[in-house]
């Protein structure tokens, strides 16, 4: 209703300047409508939803996700190649210990990994040597990520991240 | 990095270099070569720490004539066990250096922690110790 009237005026008085005014009127009306439209949901949800806003993800969150992914990859490989269980499971347990400790440092349940079920990035190969090669590749990438995180971390996180980086390097060695 | 942290790491490196003497004589072949390489790595970090401490105007703690071993080294098995322990202990000093450092200093401390942790894993494999790894290398037990 509001929109149709000025448009009609603009058509009829194209040259006398009043069309400019009417266009501003259209814009003002539109702006008021937009505000009015937005005002309803803003007032209705503002106070209630503020507490549920997720906080900025912590810089350590990707490392926690990666630790759980590495653990899942090792466990899947141990299932596919039971003769490797004694070698692979202690490494998986280390990654899980890292995830738990990093989560504790980040603080609170909001820091838990984004995915509810963590699965390895790919299924283990039926070939044992190919499986170990893939695991080494993942550990190497993990070591490099933890090394980078340690380099720039605040002092209170540096020692933990250093241990995570060093542990991933020892995994690489243990998978040779 | 504080002189205290550097001095702690230096004292650990002195002891590691000393320990590889009795370790090396109980090993042969590839293991003796690995011991010589490990000792060289500790010497090189010792030298860098001495330079860093003296140019920084700090006191360089003196090396000692001998260090007490945690257990007697009488054969290959005890030599390998001591080698594991030497690497774990020196790794702990470099881990302690991480919060006390930034930038290139922290990179060097992390490189030392990582190198010694990997060496400990290799020695565990030689010694037949399982698991080959620990969850938090360098963390005090």
From TrEMBL, chain A:
Compositionally skewed regions (Low complexity) per UniProt: 109-130
Residue segments, region Disordered: 106-130
Protein's recorded name: Ferritin-like domain-containing protein
TrEMBL record, chain B:
Domain DUF4439: 6-140
InterPro entries, sorted: DUF4439, Ferritin-like, Ferritin-like_SF
TM spans (from-to): none
Pfam name, any one: DUF4439
CDD domains: Ferritin_like
Gene3D superfamilies per UniProt: 1.20.1260.10
Protein known as: DUF4439 domain-containing protein
């Amino acid at each position: 209703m509001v929109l149709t009237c000025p448009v009609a005026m603009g058509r009829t008085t194209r040259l006398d300047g009043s069309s400019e005014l009417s266009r501003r009127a259209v814009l003002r009306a539109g702006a008021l409508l937009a505000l009015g439209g937005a005002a309803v949901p803003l007032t209705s949800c503002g106070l209630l939803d503020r507490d549920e806003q997720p906080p900025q993800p912590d810089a350590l969150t990707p490392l926690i996700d990666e630790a759980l992914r590495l653990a899942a990859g090792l466990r899947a490989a141990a299932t596919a190649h039971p003769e490797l269980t004694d070698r692979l499971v202690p490494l998986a347990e280390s990654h899980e210990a890292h995830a738990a400790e990093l989560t504790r440092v980040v603080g609170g349940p909001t820091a838990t990994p984004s995915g509810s079920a963590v699965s390895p990035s790919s299924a283990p190969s039926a070939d044992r040597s190919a499986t170990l090669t893939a695991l080494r590749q993942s550990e190497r990438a993990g070591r490099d990520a933890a090394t980078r995180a340690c380099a720039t971390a605040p002092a209170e996180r540096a020692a933990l991240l250093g241990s995570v980086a060093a542990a991933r390097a020892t995994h690489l060695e243990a998978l040779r | 990095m504080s002189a205290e942290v550097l001095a702690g790491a230096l004292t650990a490196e002195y002891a590691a270099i000393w320990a590889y003497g009795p370790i090396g004589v109980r090993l042969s072949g590839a293991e003796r070569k690995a011991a010589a390489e490990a000792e060289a790595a500790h010497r090189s970090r010792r030298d860098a720490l001495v330079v860093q401490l003296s140019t920084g105007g700090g006191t360089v703690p003196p090396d000692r004539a001998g260090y007490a071993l945690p257990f007697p080294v009488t054969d290959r098995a005890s030599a390998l066990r001591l080698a594991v322990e030497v690497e774990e202990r020196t790794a702990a000093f470099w881990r302690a250096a991480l919060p006390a450092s930034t930038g290139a200093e922290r990179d060097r401390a992390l490189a030392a922690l990582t190198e010694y942790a990997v060496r400990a894993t290799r020695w565990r494999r030689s010694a037949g110790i399982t698991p080959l790894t620990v969850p938090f290398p360098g963390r005090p037990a």
